[in-house]
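Structure ticket #2291
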Amino acid sequence: MSSAEDELNDRLTMVQNWLEENVRVVTHANELTLCDFTYSLKNYSGEFAIRVDGELLDGRWHFWLYGADGWPTVSPPMFTSPLGAPASYAAIELSGELNAAMRAKMREIFPRIAPFGRNRKTGVEFTMRNSTVEDRIIDHEAYQNTVAQIESGGLRVTVQLN
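Resolution: structure written out below.
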């Protein structure tokens, strides 16, 4: 191997070791609480915190409503360029069960908006070019109720995982 390859491998090993020491991995919980929501009406996106069995996890989870499938997209807190690596990594990893429970709860909180494509019933086509998120909201009342709960600071949901 050349010295450049050795240096790259050493750097990758350092980043991997740093991630193993710093990424919080949550494999089991009896209770998952989504709380402390913020939301931008302008950007159709926001943040929230997660408590696992009452313990507040570090970092803010991000979500946005403008995905192609119409469901909220969720991203965990991230480490950006740890040790100068040109990449971002999740700061928290939830097990498959916990991740699925969190995403299912987000789908309950934010009703689905119309996905991109042609609606078979109405013939209306939604694309990134011809429609806004506001155009894609199907259940305006449920959406407004969720936004009102966030704005009042009252949105907090718990999932029991027993």
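Closing remark: The chain has a mean pLDDT of 91.
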